[in-house]
Amino acid sequence: MGLPSSLPNSFRNQFNHSLAHFLPEGTPAPLIPVLILIETISLFIRPLALGVRLTANLTAGHLLIHLISSAVSAIFPLSISASLLTFTVLILLTILEIAVAIIQAYVFVLLLSLYLQENTYGPPSSRLSHS
Predict the structure, then answer these.
(1) Residue ranges making up the domain that contains 37
(2) Cα–Cα dist 87/128, whole Å
(3) CA-CA 20 to 30 A from 85: which of 12, 43, 59, 126?
């Protein structure tokens, strides 16, 4: 989601600023190819890393809830009080999982908007010099 929305938007709005993002001002000539390569890789890796982070956090919560719900079904025939305690923990973890999902969505949107802003208008230092 992050990559398709950030790249076309940045190149469509201000093409020169988008290309200037790859090469900082005052870069020595021998470093130009290396910096362009590093910045290009960074441009593609940022949104992918953001998506992987979001997926990993949400998957970990789902796995934890699944494991505890399996424990509830395994403990229920043995002890009703223990299964009620485990079920209460399961409800609390579900509430925690919802809170984590909301926080992850907020962080995803915040970082994606920062990446879009940087790709569209350039880094903060270049915005100060243009105004």
Answers:
(1) 2-130
(2) 55
(3) 59
pTM of the model: 0.60
pLDDT per residue as tens digits for the range 3-19 = 555 555 555 555 555 56
Residue 25 token pair:
């001002």
User: Which amino acid belongs to residue 35?
Assistant: L
Could you identify the residue written with the tokens 């362009």? 36
Alpha-carbon distances of 11 from 38, 50, 117, rounded to whole Å: 18, 20, 12
Considering its fold, how many domains does the chain have in total? 1
User: How many angstroms separate the CA atoms of 65 and 75, rounded?
Assistant: 15
Instruction: List pLDDT tens digits, range 21-45.
Output: 677 778 788 888 888 888 888 888 8
Cα–Cα dist 111/46, whole Å: 9
| Token code pair at residue 113 | 């908007």
Question: What is the rounded CA–CA span in Å between residue 27 and residue 40?
Answer: 16
